[in-house]
Amino acid sequence: MAAAPVGDDRYGEDPSVNRLEERFAALVGKPASVYVPSGTMGNQIALRLHGAPGSNVVVGRRQHLMSYESGAAGWNNVFQIYAVDDTGGVIDAAATAEAVAAGRGGFWPPVSLICLENTHLASGGLALGAEDLAAAGLGPPVHLDGARLFNAAIALGTPAAELADTAATVMSCVSKGLGAPVGSLLAGPADLVAEARLHRRRLGGAMRQAGVIAAGGLYALDHHIDRLADDHARADRLGQAVAERWPGTRLGEAVASCGRPFTNVVAFRHPDALGLLDHLRQAGVRAGLLAPGIVRFVTHLDVDDADIDRAVAALSSASS
Asked: Which of 59, 147, 165, 229 is most exposed, with minimal Cβ within 10 Å?
């Protein structure tokens, strides 16, 4: 990162950013991509690209861009969110098809976009296969929030490009499990990515000598994708500890048993979630809440086997 060649990315003159964008676009099978400061910005730009005024945008009710982006979709745009059930990570196909058909018939607003998420955070990091994603191919364009898409690719043994094939646009983070300090990328057709650069500037995301951080993203894509399997194995140990201590509480268990694998997220319901977080903190383990009463662990590059040992011991010694 310290030695990265830099330039003014606002004018497309940063060679490190350009290399990162080309590398990511190739990995997800799209013609072009744009580097943005955060996954939320990438998702919000995608909504601006696709979401027509007065239309419906179909979103799973527990997807990140619905529930975890501070209402940005409603604040920044002039379309309606049409929320459907996404229990188990997959949006309700019947409800989505109904919305699309009703929009075409003039009964409801037309659907301008269908949003998917892989892995699905609120289901405990479940990875969705290409067949799950293809089911949303009902005509309107699809945006894939693939913040942890490479986790899904490793867990399923499927190239990221195949998982993103049905999506018009796809966003992924090079932070999170890939370990870069900052940044995400939004990929799609060249004309849409050119428009995305304009929206990035409007949202204050155009950067100058960004090659310093882009170099971290390049390193992550070149060296940290295959090692995501280590994070999955460590999360599995945590999941087993949760299952032994509080059977039947882990989110996504029923769907995971049907073939959608867990990745690096362990989320479970607990009657005293705040008390448990305090107990874990005192044992030197940091965790968080996914929602009221739902505890979340996430394994990543900076968590090793000794850290998992400490977390498992803390879970075992919890009072309730």
From this structure: 229
Q: Burial level of 56, CB count in 10 A (0-12/13-18/19+)?
A: buried
SS (H, E, C) 37-55: CCHHHHHHHHHHHHCCCCC
**Which band of pLDDT confidence, cut at 50, 70 and 90, is reported for residue 256?**
confident
The CATH number given to whatever domain includes residue 98 is 3.40.640.10
How far is 112 from 88, CA to CA, in rounded Å? 24
Q: State the CATH number of the domain containing residue 271.
A: 3.90.1150.10
- DSSP class per residue in 140-188: S-EEEE-TTHHHHHHHHT--HHHHTTT-SEEEEESSGGG--SS-EEEEE
| 3-state secondary structure at position 307 | helix
CA 220, 291, 40 angle in degrees (round to 5)? 40
Q: Collapsing DSSP states into helix, strand and coil, what is residue 81?
A: strand
* Count of domains for the chain: 2
Indicate whether 189 and 299 sit together in one domain. no
- DSSP secondary-structure letter at 312? H
- In terms of pTM, does the model score above 0.85? yes
Q: Which residues contact residue 233 at a Cβ distance below 8 angstroms, ignoring those fewer than 6 apart?
A: none
Q: Which tokens in the block code for residue 146? A: 């693939």
80 Cα distance to chain centroid: 22
35, 185 in Cβ contact below 8 A? yes
Instruction: State the CB neighbour count (10 A cutoff) for residue 43.
Output: 29
Query: pLDDT for 177-212, tens place per residue?
Result: 899 999 999 999 999 999 999 999 999 999 999 999
Q: Which residues lie below 8 Å from residue 106, measured CB to CB, with a gap of 6+?
A: none
Sequential DSSP letters for 178-246: G--SS-EEEEE-HHHHHHHHHHHHHTT---SSTHHHHHHHHHHHHHSSTTHHHHHHHHHHHHHHHHHHS
